Amino acid sequence: MLCCCVNSKINKKYAELDAKLERKMVESRRNYPGHRSLKSMDSIIMKFPKLREGLRNIRSVFESYDKDENGTIDMEELKKCLEELKLSLSEEEVKGLYGWCDVDGSKGIQFNEFIVLLCLIYLLAKPSSESCSESREMDTPKLVESIFDPIVEVFLFLDKDGKGKLNKADVIKTLNNEDYPLERSPSHVTNMRFEEMDWGRKGKVGFREFLFAFISWVGLDDADDYMSS
């Protein structure tokens, strides 16, 4: 009985984080005009080499805070990392995001989970669109901005209805844009890519799930290629 109550409380917390992130993505459309310059999957793939380089730099950050070299970041190590990167959220929110991104339940954040966690904290810590002057004054390291801002723009490009979540019909239509016939993705590829994001098989994908999938598409090896599948 106690276990059920605890799980219910945790699930409620994660649902609240999901809803907060959804609202943040709706707000972000005003602050990330770059998503309008994307036209097709090819224009996204062209960003992969630079993003891959940035993710390697994030790996260096991860390794520098993994003091015990066990391949994971614990809460104390994460707090030091966030202080250094000048990313500020309440301790309760950070703990919630930490658990939400620990998808394998290992009670430690591995590198791919660390990328997602860091991006979510960066995004949620940014002032709302009503505080643009504050946003410009944020002293966030350029490394974080240069990696995560383009990823947010890709999500916004795919989120055609602007509701903060991706739906299958819009994603497939966007990637198979008839205005760019030479850059259309094969239908079996677009279906497979959406399924990789849609963990709950509900036809809707939030930013967290998109992030995990997108990072795997970008890869950390030059040999990794989106179209190889």
UniProtKB/TrEMBL annotation:
<dbReference type="GO" id="GO:0005509">
    <property type="term" value="F:calcium ion binding"/>
</dbReference>
<dbReference type="Pfam" id="PF13499">
    <property type="entry name" value="EF-hand_7"/>
</dbReference>
<feature type="domain" description="EF-hand">
    <location>
        <begin position="53"/>
        <end position="88"/>
    </location>
</feature>
<protein>
    <recommendedName>
        <fullName>EF-hand domain-containing protein</fullName>
    </recommendedName>
</protein>
<dbReference type="InterPro" id="IPR002048">
    <property type="entry name" value="EF_hand_dom"/>
</dbReference>
<dbReference type="InterPro" id="IPR018247">
    <property type="entry name" value="EF_Hand_1_Ca_BS"/>
</dbReference>
<dbReference type="InterPro" id="IPR052591">
    <property type="entry name" value="CML21-like"/>
</dbReference>
<keyword id="KW-0106">Calcium</keyword>
<dbReference type="InterPro" id="IPR011992">
    <property type="entry name" value="EF-hand-dom_pair"/>
</dbReference>
